[in-house]
């Protein structure tokens, strides 16, 4: 479940 | 969200607040690299453009806005309000040597060749080296005020804690982002010499 465009970290 | 990530964010927030308070209370930005601060503003601006495109959580959005505001606030204090105290002569690191390779690398090594993704990647690469003008300034003058040291320690700890967060996420969520991890390790390694001095001087130097 590695997503490209969702960077949920700061 | 795990405890390492939360501690990392708190550490990051603390660093930014320490810096703002230091400048505000002493009415001076002596010993602080304006070049590093400009690089950080570029980093946050390039990375947090996704505020307009993807919503993750209120926490995420608020923190992004705080980092942006604090970063531009710092620049305002350094280059306008307390400009006279800015130490030009010792802040001489050539930032084009950092920016250009990061631009090139983000065009070559990224997750997806799209404008926002390339900007995100660029910001990750640039953040990993953005502290170099500050570390260069400290080594050039041979000293840092203790408050500047606390700022650097908090700022360095943030990415070190993120590494623990990435290890945790790898095992707990099967989530990993190679670009962030490699750049985060580079970023943390750059602080190692400073960490060593901070800890040994903090314990034995007083």
Describe the fold and architecture.
The complex is a heterodimer of chains A (10) and B (206). By secondary structure, chain A is mostly loops. Chain A is 0% helix and 0% strand. Chain A has no helices and no strands. In chain A, 20% of the residues are buried. The mean pLDDT of chain A is 67. Chain B is mainly alpha-helical. Chain B has eight helices and no strands. The model of chain B has no long low-confidence stretch (mean pLDDT 95). At the A-B interface, loops of A face helix 1, helix 3, helix 5 and helix 7 of B.
Give the helices and strands, then pairings.
The complex is a heterodimer of chains A (10) and B (206).
Chain A: no helix or strand
Chain B: H1 3-26, H2 34-47, H3 58-81, H4 96-108, H5 115-129, H6 132-141, H7 146-173, H8 178-204
Helix pairs in contact in B: 1-3, 1-7, 2-3, 2-5, 4-5, 5-8, 7-8
Q: What portion of residues of chain A belong to β-strands?
A: under 5%
Number of strand elements of chain B: 0
The overall average pLDDT of chain B, rounded, is 95
Class from secondary-structure proportions of chain A:
little secondary structure
- Please report the distance between the alpha carbons of the first and last residues of chain A: 19 Å
Major β-sheet profile of chain A: none
Major sheet description of chain B: none
Overall body shape of chain A: elongated
Largest interface (CB < 8 Å): A-B, 9 and 26 residues
Which blocks of ≥5 consecutive residues of chain A have pLDDT under 50? Answer: none
Oligomer: heterodimer
Rg over alpha carbons of chain A: 7 Å
The fraction of residues in strands of chain B falls at under 5%
* Structural class computed from helices and strand pairing of chain B: mainly alpha
Q: End-to-end distance of chain B, in Å?
A: 38 Å
Number of helices of chain A: 0
Say how many strands of chain A there are.
0
Give the averaged pLDDT of chain A, no decimals: 67
Order of helices and strands of chain B: HHHHHHHH
